[in-house]
Amino acid sequence: MNGVEKRLTRIFRQDHKTIIVPMDHGVTLGPVEGLQNMQRTVTGLLKANADAFVIHKGIARAVNTGNAGLIVHVSASTRYSPDPNRKVRVGSVLEALRLGADAVSIHVNIGAPTEAEMLAKLGGIADECHEYEMPLLAMMYPRGSTIQNEHDKSVVAHVARLGAELGADIVKTNYTGTPESFREVVQSCPVPVIIAGGPKTETDRDILQMVYDANKAGCAGASIGRNVFQHKDPEKMARALIRIVHEDASVDEAFSLVGDKR
Questions:
Q1: Which of 87, 153, 172, 236 is labelled catalytic?
Q2: Is 175 a catalytic residue?
Q3: What pLDDT was estimated at residue 200?
Q4: So where are the chain's domains?
Q5: Which residue, among 143, 55, 146, has the nearest Cα to 101 in the 3D structure?
Q6: Which of 17, 24, 51, 87 is catalytic?
Q7: pLDDT of the residue at 260
Q8: pTM of the entire structure?
Q9: Which of 2, 66, 132, 135 is the most exposed place for a label (fewest CB within 10 A)?
Q10: What pLDDT does residue 113 have?
Q11: Catalytic one among 102, 121, 141, 236?
């Protein structure tokens, strides 16, 4: 077992699936609800047995993520930027190693005016990861003026495959809306695909149904941020997602854990 494989075992369970909670939003959005006290939120999610967290390097120094997988995010932009879709590199693989990371992640927006620049950064980070045997999570999103539908299966399949083609070990992307269409995305990507949570959903059942359907389509799990850390009870929501992904629970079974009657 090489270094990449060993580190991936700290992110994926024996069923080869994972529930990741991305909490890198403090760079993009600031200290929004759920992120004001990072340690308190992380501690609650550790009690729920979340598999891994995505955080920036400064937070990785300040917050104890316990036995969960640590994924250090190395790209960034803010909502105040003239071009928020332009993600710039803000860290290195070697720095992530010094922080004890189990993987690094990078965000690429396909269809944005700076797509070429971001792809070049993805290729460079992938090369560094290969050198240090560090897994790479590529957050691949169809997002920009040339994209008419961010959930179109052909577009999502293309961006997922693009991440794998350029060296990612895990690809995170949008759910396409149905298990049948997302199955095509998963089957056309040679590395594990996990779904993004997206904006805060109107109801708990909405996010649970999406994760359930994606799980049935063969995806390797989910990376859910705001719908977990901004939930009224993040620990319960994380437990509900874990029941679906790791225990094949139904939506109703998972929903019963959340306690939200909506």
A1: 172
A2: no
A3: 78
A4: 3-258
A5: 55
A6: 24
A7: 57
A8: 0.96
A9: 2
A10: 97
A11: 141
Cβ neighbours of residue 210 under 8 Å, at least 6 residues apart?
A: 175, 195, 201
pLDDT score, position 262 = 46
Q: Is 141 a catalytic residue?
A: yes
CATH assignment of 3-258, given 3.20.20.70, 3.40.630.30, 3.10.520.10, 1.25.40.20?
Answer: 3.20.20.70
| Known catalytic residue at 212 | no
